[in-house]
Amino acid sequence: MMRIAAAVLAGAVLALLTSFGVVRVVTTSEKDPVAKPLYNYGTR
Predict the structure, then answer these.
(1) 28: pLDDT confidence band, cut at 50, 70 and 90?
(2) pLDDT at res. 4
(3) Which domain of life is it from (predicted)?
(4) Which of 4, 12, 29, 43 is most solvent-facing, going by the fewest CB within 10 Å?
(5) CA–CA gap between residue 40 and residue 44 (Å, rounded)
(6) Which burial class, exposed, middle or buried, applies to 23 when counting CB atoms under 10 A from its CB (0-12, 13-18, 19+)?
(7) For range 22-38, the mean pLDDT
(8) More confident residue, 8 or 31
(9) Distance of alpha carbon 11 from alpha carbon 3, whole angstroms
(10) Element (H, E) at 3
(11) Residue 17 Cα distances to 1, 14, 21, 23, 30, angstroms
(12) What is the predicted pLDDT for the residue at 17?
């Protein structure tokens, strides 16, 4: 029973760290060149 609880806890920690890492990569990869072309549609 103790092994199962340890495995569940380790899995939860790994899932949290992975999701935090993915969110960090996504937020740091968002730069202005992606948003700038969207503003030019109104002038055409």
Answers:
(1) confident
(2) 96
(3) Bacteria
(4) 43
(5) 7
(6) exposed
(7) 66
(8) 8
(9) 12
(10) helix 2-29
(11) 25, 5, 6, 10, 20
(12) 93
Determine the Cα–Cα distance for residues 34 and 12; give it in Å rounded to an integer.
Answer: 34
Residue carrying structure tokens 């996504």: 26
Q: Which two tokens stand for residue 44?
A: 């055409």
HEC states along 7-34?
HHHHHHHHHHHHHHHHHHHHHHHCCHHH
At which residue do the structure tokens 């569940």 appear?
8
Q: Which tokens is 36 given?
A: 């700038």
For tokens 């380790």, name the residue.
10
